[in-house]
Structure formats: C-alpha cells, structure tokens
Design brief:
two-stranded antiparallel sheet; alpha+beta; single chain; Glutaredoxin
C-alpha cells in the first residue's frame, strides 16, 4: 500500500491534493513506520483502532481510505490502486472547471 501512496503523492506534487494519514498505532510506532516506508505526507497517531479520529470518522477496519473533494465532501471510501487513481484524477478535473 505505501508504494502506491508514495507514487500518488509524487504524481500529484504541485496540484491541489493532500494525502493525510491516520495511524491506529501509537506515536513511537508511527514514527518508525514513517521512516521505514519513506512517508512524505502528514500522518497522525490516533492511538488505537478506537481512537478519537477513527471514532469520529466511523472507521471500523484498517486501512480505510476516504477521498474528499475540495469542499470536504466524502466522495469515495476504500478505493485502492487504479480505482483510487481514477477517483483522484476525476476530482482534479473538477478543480480545473
């Protein structure tokens, strides 16, 4: 999963796009994961699968992916690979209208 996220962040560089990570592990483990996986995007430790962020967003499984548009509206949930790329590309087109 992390290789795809890295390529997506690189491909979207300079565009109105943000990847934001929320990790169910504690801060120390997240820090190690960021280093190991070369994560260049902002990532936050939620502390557990029942942390405040997971609870507020209704996350019940990990990983969960939410694609939001420029207005903060959830447009897709749990897309991966090509489907995620396609959804992001479609939203990028919308920002150019």
């Amino acid at each position: 999963m992390y290789p795809h996220e890295r390529s997506l962040v690189k491909r979207m560089q300079g565009k109105p796009f943000t990847l934001l990570g929320i990790n169910s592990d504690g801060a120390a483990r997240l820090k190690a994961t960021i280093a190991k996986e070369h994560m260049t995007w902002p990532s936050f430790a939620d502390g557990s699968t029942e942390g405040p962020i997971a609870t507020a967003w209704g996350v019940h499984s990990w990983p969960s992916i939410y694609v939001l548009d420029a207005k903060g509206v959830i447009r897709n949930i749990d897309l991966r690979g090509e489907q995620l790329d396609k959804a992001v590309d479609e939203l990028m087109k919308e920002t150019q209208k």
